[in-house]
Amino acid sequence: MMASMLVDFLVFVSILTLCIIVIVNIDKLDSLVSSSAVPGSGEQKKNRYLGVASKKRWVAVLYGVTHFLILFGGWAVLMYFVMISWVVPTFMDWVFQNAGFHDGRYVPWWPYLLLMVSCFFFSGLGISMLHYSLVWVVKRLLLRFGFLEWKALSAIIEG
Length: 159
What we know:
Number of helices: 4
Order of helices and strands: HEEHEEHEH
Number of strands: 5
Number of domains: 1
Radius of gyration: 22 Å
């Protein structure tokens, strides 16, 4: 019984640690989102977002706002429709019915924790794929109409 409780505790602590690491390092994961002068462009400052550059400030601001709204909307959809309305109630029902102390025996919690984390991970993966596909569509439209221009990846990373 103590070994099962120890495994539950270790799984919970490792999940919590991974979540904290991801939250702290989330800004370092996407090195292509930045805004500064492009090297070698002379006096002309260009705003860079996701591998493109724009001479017009309002286009860069509009693109940044669109990027934020898509990201915020994606996480709001994930939290409301997936986590709050389905995963959390299901998890609570399963845990309260199956895990913990029953008839003098201890039933481990870790399978339920792993199930919830995997469901959250795959839901987040789907929302992130939707987010980046929408950002890609917005970027392609702005490129098509001449508001943005392509920049080499090496120039973006060096700056």
